[in-house]
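Try this one yourself first.
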């Protein structure tokens, strides 16, 4: 069982400062990384930026994940309670974090649209949903080795 990769992403709306959203991502990742930026136009013609960081190296994945789980504290219980809702059929664990709180240095779960999305691709053998759910429950409760 392993975490194959982790992708963090955030949308920068036209009313937001892109540097502050980048800083929010930096507050989550305890090492140097590269942010990929893409631009688009919103439904009403407003400019949008998409910020994305992909972690592929095992050391980075482990360091990021364990830092995140540690900073979530008691909120881990919420994720465990709703684990079947936050892990999709492809084995991707979806966690939403409040963008404003993360910018201020806190890690707070969010269930709205304006958030930082953390997507962790979980791999188990065999790749059955119940094994992936058990693995997700383990790494959110105990961290990732």
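Now uncover the answer:
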């Amino acid at each position: 069982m392993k975490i194959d990769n982790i992708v963090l992403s955030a949308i920068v709306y036209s009313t937001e400062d892109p540097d502050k959203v980048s800083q929010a991502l930096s507050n989550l990742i305890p090492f140097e990384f590269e942010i990929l930026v893409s631009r688009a136009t919103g439904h009403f013609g407003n400019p949008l930026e998409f910020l994305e960081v992909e972690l592929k190296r095992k050391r980075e994945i482990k360091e990021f994940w364990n830092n995140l789980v540690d900073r979530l504290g008691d909120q881990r219980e919420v994720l465990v309670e709703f684990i079947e809702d936050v892990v999709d059929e492809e084995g991707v664990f979806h966690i939403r974090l409040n963008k404003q709180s993360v910018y201020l240095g806190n890690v707070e779960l969010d269930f709205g649209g304006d958030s930082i999305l953390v997507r962790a691709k979980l791999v188990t053998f065999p790749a059955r949903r119940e094994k992936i759910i058990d693995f997700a429950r383990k790494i959110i409760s105990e961290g990732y080795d």
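Discussion: The first strand starts at residue 2 and ends at 12. The chain has a mean pLDDT of 95.
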